[in-house]
Amino acid sequence: MADILTFVLIGLYFVVLIGIGNWASKKIHNTEDYILAGRSLGFWVFTILIVCSICSGMTLLGVSGFGYNSGWPGIWEQIFVPLAAAFCIIFFGVKLQAIGKERGYLTVQDYLADRFESPRALRALSAVAGIIVSLIYLVGQYAAISIVLVWLFAIPHWQALLIAGIIITAYTVVGGLYAVSWTTLFQGGILIFGVLLMAPFVIASAGGLEHINTVIAGIDPNFVEPWFPSPAYASYAYATPEFLVSFGILLMVGLACAPHVINNVLAAKEARYFKWAPFVAFGIYAVVMFLVKFTGFAVRSLVEEGRLVLPDAVNAQDFAFILGVEHAMPNVAFWALFAVIVLAAVMSTTDRLMLTVGTSFAWDIYKNVFRPAAPDKEVLLVSKIAIVLGAGGTLVLAINPPPMLAWLIWMGIGVMLATFAVPLLAGLYWRGATGEGAIASMAVGLVAAAAFGYWHQFVSPLPMHFSFFALVLSTLAMVAVSLLTARSSTDVLDGTRTGWFIQSPRGAPRPGAPGATRLADQDSPRRQ
After folding, report:
1. How far apart are CA 159 and CA 84, in angstroms?
2. Does the pLDDT of residue 321 top 70, yes or no?
3. What long-range pairs does 162-170 form, CB within 8 A, spacing at least 24?
4. What residue ranges are annotated as transmembrane (predicted)?
5. Which of 244-253, 258-267, 326-335 is predicted least confidently?
């Protein structure tokens, strides 16, 4: 379906991304610049970066596919996911941005190593866990990119993966977070504009929401209910009340504590951004999410009425948004613009994930575990090599796409929830949490997530998302082990602002004040 206009527009889009990467490379002078953009992100760049780190191929392809498959019972996703942005900024961002700037954190692993006085063991474990979940998540993103390019250019799946991988890897390797943040602002603007422009046309082409509801209710009356009855009576009817409880925790907390999301709070320039950023991020993302989900409903209605046919593919529902736009706006110019919009949605998360893989390996494992004396140039080189290898590995894994894109994305988020949520929340808010407890919690969560995920997928479906059971075990491990081991030192607890507050209460010791200890004064690895 691609014509010369499409090639020109897509080519121009890729040229802009590479150009931003080249511009960003001139601003990088040390590791902090590469990983955190020099802690210089302004309000809108920071807020859109948070939104687009959460937004992904799931937002346009997975969300519409989920809507196509399950109807209104899946609408809770449109509340839970935007809440993840607000949760991250409020419960993690306020504390971490302040202590990160004062104590020199470059990654969330820096915080965990400092707070739990475990400069090697917990740092290495959390870095490995972060790399694993980022790679899982990346496979889903590449699958989404391939769907777009295969549809657009009628090329083989592997060629689509290769093209996308080369472009994203190029500007991420060259420009670090400077490139990722500014390309994300560009891509985020395209995404928001595109959904606001195109989704209403698809919904209108199907006869509006009232007609759509009538049609999908004819397929299954529960498609227009807030949830499916329990127990699940069909493969698509898993959004039961008990599943939705676990689903809410999965999306709101799991996404908020994902390394590629939470690391962004360390790059914000001013603490005052955290006053309004949660509301702005929630509002922007909620509008986009609801419109995309309604588009999934509309395409299901069009298919049922015989006005649209999905492709013969295992993940056919993930083509819903694409084919809906093609049906409602039969103009090649609009198709080319829409292709850029979908690519922007997917690539704005993919590049952040790739950077997370590179920095987790180079900074947290190579520099702070194996080679503390490594200079900045060496760390940057190792990070770039890790990004290239990670991109190549996930491209290979993405050759066989999953039956539904949403499931793969949820699996990655589930592992994030099981491994990072408890150590982060306990570390920030419970002074009784210990290093041994954090290691036990993260290890148990990671193993339990793998075990319950395997059981759900290959043995017997669970009534709730598998990550919920892993989260419970992770919490029990943190509490039990922490109660049996010695507390962290008071200096560290005060210096990392640990306690049941979001902002330090008046009179509490602050990092840099008497009674507080800086990261650079401890045995934990120092920032170069």
Report:
1. 34
2. yes
3. 162/395, 164/343, 164/347, 164/350, 165/391, 165/392, 165/395, 167/14, 167/17, 167/18, 167/347, 168/347, 168/350, 168/351, 168/354, 168/391, 169/354, 169/387, 169/388, 169/391, 170/18, 170/21
4. 6-24, 36-63, 75-94, 125-154, 160-181, 188-209, 243-267, 279-299, 319-346, 379-399, 405-430, 437-456, 462-484
5. 326-335
Residue 210 token pair: 């009232």
DSSP state of 399: T
* Longest CA span, the chain: 73
Q: What one-character-per-residue DSSP string does 38-99 give?
A: GG-B-HHHHHHHHHHHH-SHIIIIIHHHHHHHH-GGGTTHHHHHHHHHHHIIIIIIHHHHHH
Q: What CA–CA distance (Å, rounded) separates 4 from 142?
A: 25
Q: Distance between CA 287 and CA 394 in Å, rounded?
A: 31
b/e map of 168-191 (b: 16 or more CB within 10 Å)? bbbbbbbbbbbbbbbbbbbbbebb
**pLDDT, tens digit, 9 for 90 and up, residues 35-80:** 777 788 889 888 888 887 777 655 677 788 889 999 999 999 889 9
**pLDDT one-digit tens code per residue, 7-38:** 777 778 778 777 777 777 777 777 777 777 77
- pLDDT for residue 146: 74
Chain mean pLDDT for the chain? 82
pLDDT on residue 194? 80
Rounded Cα–Cα distance for residues 415 and 130 (Å): 9
Q: Cα(470)–Cα(422) distance, rounded to whole angstroms?
A: 11
Contacts of 133 (CB under 8 A, 6+ apart): 258, 259, 412, 415, 416, 419
Domains of the chain, CATH where assigned? 4-401 (1.20.1730.10)
List pLDDT tens digits, range 175-188.
666 666 777 677 77
The angle at the Cα of 137, spanning 366 to 202, to the nearest 5 degrees, equals 150
Burial group, residue 225, by CB count within 10 angstroms (0-12, 13-18, 19+) = middle
Instruction: Say what the pLDDT of residue 520 is.
Output: 37
Lowest mean pLDDT among 259-263, 282-286, 312-316: 312-316
Cβ count within 10 A of residue 238: 22
CA-based angle 129:134:139, to the nearest 5? 135
Rounded CA-CA distance 104/520 in Å is 8
Query: Residue 512 is encoded by which pair of tokens?
Result: 């840099």
Spatial distance between the Cα atoms of 246 and 200, rounded to a whole number of angstroms: 31
Q: Give the amino acid at 254.
A: G
Q: Over the Cα atoms of the chain, what is R_g?
A: 23
Q: For residues 342-357, give the mean pLDDT.
A: 72
pLDDT in tens, 365-414: 999 889 988 888 898 889 888 888 887 777 776 776 555 555 667 777 88
d(CA 269, CA 260): 18
Residue linked to tokens 């004064």: 521
